[in-house]
């Protein structure tokens, strides 16, 4: 009986799954877990529904494989929809299996991975199927910030089913085979008249680059699931544990001489912040989150001195590294995740300000920018900020400045901390003098230089205690690691409250 359940409904159904470029549920589980470690739960479960022919079709597993195993030697729980059975649609028994698994994961204090490939609620079971989704959502929320939750969308995920991935910490998708949307193309066309394909409406690249729902997009399931394993290796099992430490073979005192030339001294010249991150972190290895979305800020997990850290960095190579609505949301969610799971934060600052524009203002840049500010102010993990070059206006404050609680604030000698750039400041402060001058351009240049000399020299903030030290760029790695080691036992308690009121 067990062998029949593991084999699936038929060879024809398996061939049809493979013909779509998709693996079966058990093939996916075999890639996710360490070999031979998966333990199935309720593999012989069958539904009890009647009507519409269901009483004559009662396959084992009821369309979802659930259980636990090891990933890099640590316990992880997973459920995988089996599209070969009822199209992976969720019924009462199917939902109860997932509820059971999520409750086990909560009791054991281990991550949950959902391998999603289902056609939504099982229509033949009516409202009981919808209630099954409610139980999943409730558990998603209850375990939020308690257990790492990862959704891997490997097929259709439509309607109410899409809200479970939206409630989890990270969403993975595969190009060409994954689609996620609330209403499908037919409904969209009927209501709005817009003709759209499933891939354009809810495909991997649409959600990875446009909506920000997906954190990662891949060309095939194998590489997708391998990266799920890699991400799990960087995360703690729960919020009571620390992320697993790596080796310290990359010397902590390694000098980064290339940084001296990597960041241009001229504030308007762009560069790729990823090159700097790669130079500083252990073995040049980092794992970027939401790499295709809101590219003016980079969020990544990496190790420094063997310790997992979350890196938030402005990206001068895209929109000059300004903060806008999407970048603020992306960084805020990442900061909040790191804080929930005790992952220290390293913030690399090179920000000219918030993106100006009527669209930004009318779409709520104030409210969305406040999400990032709230996330940093609310974070109790070790927080280290490093000002590389520009740090202007409110965007500087929001990017974990010393004034909002960064534990250690460092700066390079090229830093420019000010309300705004020298040219803009001079035009405001000395507007009348410039206008009355016989040679306005010469006067403007003189006043710009005067403002730079008085307020924008590299040591102005250090002299006032807003920066702890101005460091040699080549020492960046060693100084960051030293600060992280010092803050390893940091403990900060927020005032007693039910919860804050995040500006959603």
Question: Can you give keywords for this protein?
Answer:
single chain; 504 residues; alpha/beta; 2-enoyl-CoA Hydratase, Chain A, domain 1; 3 domains; eight-stranded mixed beta sheet; seven-stranded mixed beta sheet
Structural account:
By secondary structure, the chain is of the alpha/beta class. It has 3 domains: 1-240, Alpha-Beta Complex (2-enoyl-CoA Hydratase, Chain A, domain 1), CATH 3.90.226.10; 255-414 and 457-485, Alpha-Beta Complex (2-enoyl-CoA Hydratase, Chain A, domain 1), CATH 3.90.226; 420-456, no CATH class. 38% of the residues lie in helices and 18% in strands. The chain has helices at 2-7, 11-19, 25-32, 92-108, 127-142, 163-167, 185-192, 198-202, 204-211, 221-233, 259-262, 273-280, 325-340, 358-362, 365-378, 393-398, 422-429, 431-436, 440-455, 460-463, 476-486; strands spanning 39-41, 64-71, 74-81, 112-116, 149-153, 156-158, 170-174, 179-181, 216-218, 286-289, 297-304, 307-314, 345-351, 383-392, 408-411, 416-418, 469-470. The strands form 3 sheets. Strands 10, 11, 12, 13, 14, 15, 16 and 17 form an 8-stranded mixed β-sheet that branches. Strands 1-2-3-4-5-7-9 form a 7-stranded mixed β-sheet, with helices on both faces. A two-stranded parallel ribbon has the order 6-8. The mean pLDDT is 92. Residues 1-247 form the CoA carboxyltransferase N-terminal domain.
